[in-house]
Design a protein that fits this description.
Blueprint (H helix, E strand, L loop, with lengths): L7 E5 L6 H14 L4 E5 L13 H7 L4 E5 L4 E5 L10 H5 L9 E5 L8 E5 L15 E6 L12 E3 L3 H12 L11 H8 L1
Parallel strand pairs: 1-5, 1-6, 2-5, 6-7, 7-8
Antiparallel strand pairs: 3-4
Helix pairs in contact: 1-4
């Protein structure tokens, strides 16, 4: 299990199931309840967040291995990685987050990593469930009945973000928004 000082909740599913769509619905609800949320997303392809003709882009393309661009409103770090390198590990990426400014972290993807996850499942897509083969799956969010029975973990409505938020809060937090005893070290750190 990945060690991290805050609740870490993954959303795992096959591509096209709606992980990003769900997270874009969950984030505003968590923010409305006063939670400070970090997010990490795994991408299976090369991506570019910088723009040609911008100074930061020009510095990177001129040879900077790391480029930190900052303003009073935003800070972004771009680290160049060799194409031959292995996929980044979630534990290493978590080190880049400032956990002192967050209450929890939502993770999209990284289904092979060991941390608590909610599986998103749409039976209409014809994909098999990741549960029960992944013991880190703590709930399934689906838009239809599951064909696998019995299911020994909570089944949530994929189209009801409020239900998923209620599950996250009850599973990971006490009423005062402190992490629950499943994270005893973290709870002690937060109270101090």
């Amino acid at each position: 299990m990945i060690a991290f000082p805050l609740p870490l909740i993954g959303f795992s599913a096959f591509s096209g199931t709606g992980k990003t769509t769900l997270l874009t619905r969950l984030l505003p609800l968590l923010k409305q309840q006063g939670f400070r949320v970090g997010a990490i997303k795994h991408a299976h392809h090369r991506f570019e967040i910088d723009h040609p003709h911008k100074d930061s882009y020009r510095l990177r393309k001129s040879g900077a291995d790391q480029m930190l661009v900052a303003s009073r409103n935003c800070i972004a770090m771009i680290t160049e990685r060799e194409d031959q390198q292995a996929e980044p590990e979630l534990a290493d990426l978590l080190k880049a987050l400032d956990s002192s400014t967050l209450d929890l972290v939502l993770v999209e993807g990284f289904k092979q990593e060991h941390f608590p996850k909610i599986e998103l499942h749409r039976p209409s897509l014809g994909k098999k469930l990741l549960y029960p083969d992944d013991p880190n799956i703590i709930a399934i969010a689906t838009d239809d009945r599951l064909s696998t029975t019995p299911c020994h973990i909570p089944v949530l409505d994929l189209n009801n973000p409020s239900e998923i938020i209620a599950f996250l809060i009850s599973h990971f937090f006490q009423p005062d928004k402190q992490p629950v005893s499943a994270y005893p070290l973290q709870a002690q750190q937060r109270v101090q």
